[in-house]
Amino acid sequence: MRLNPFNTGNIQVKGSSGGGVGKAGGLGCGTIIIAALGYFVFGLDPFQTAATVESVQQGSQSSGGTEMSEQEACTANEYSREACDGLQSLNQTWARVFQEQGLGDRFQQPTLHLYSGGVRTACGNGSANMGPFYCPSDQTIYIDTSFYDQLARMAGGGGDFARYYVLAHEYGHHIQTITGISGQIRSQQQRVSRGQANQLNVRMELQADCYAGVWAGKNRNLIEPGDIEEGMRAASAIGDDKLTGGRVSSENFTHGTSAQRSEALRTGLRGDDSACDAYTIVS
């Protein structure tokens, strides 16, 4: 995908390496996201992950990592530069969408935090084992770029569009936060059974996939041959059914099947963000 080079004057980026964990707020939706990623991407027990994060949040301390400037973070490696290019494009695209809908005053840019090893977040401890995640409490997307090598192995091949899809998916969670969608869904999850709460989470994840497609669909002039196929392979590779290999029942899925995730991305690629509303309209 042919994106313009980033300009640190119009993106918000942080960088750190060799980070540790500090005290943060109580166990919340950020922990749920982290735990789910740990399980469905890397096979970690989600409850074990959540318990670990909770114990950290209750006061465990360790030293932090070395902070980097925006320029240093964005030029640390090829993946970092690519992520900053993607963030800039996502900001521009979604700012325009909000403006066109008369909601320009509601748009807020997220921060991208590129780290290595571990990182402190307002949602608790983050680590490379958890994969990329979004923390709504500080409106920040956290990525250890070494994940992209893991993604390439999972998807049977890499490609920049597959990596952009991951970033755009996390950006989709930011859109859900600033529009209030995530708050509404989390509120509903508190009033239903665990299985129903999981299904609501699936809806959230599929909508984020759809939003990722919207971004790409609104920048079709920048898409190169093979990009869409890369994105579809990545979406399929991280479906709950494929990652769990039948070891987990569908009522415990939290992100959607390979077919659902691919279809959500395909829906968004039409470029109509309103089509993504269907995923989170629940009774």
TrEMBL record:
Keywords: Membrane, Transmembrane, Transmembrane helix. It is found in: Membrane. InterPro entries: Uncharacterised_pept_Zn_put. It comes from the Bacteria. The keyword Nucleotide-binding does not apply. Pfam families: Zn_peptidase. Its main location: membrane. The keyword Transmembrane helix applies. It is a single-pass membrane protein. The chain crosses the membrane at residues 21-42. Coiled coil: none annotated. This is Neutral zinc metallopeptidase. It comes from Qipengyuania aurantiaca. The lineage of its organism: Bacteria, Pseudomonadati, Pseudomonadota, Alphaproteobacteria, Sphingomonadales.
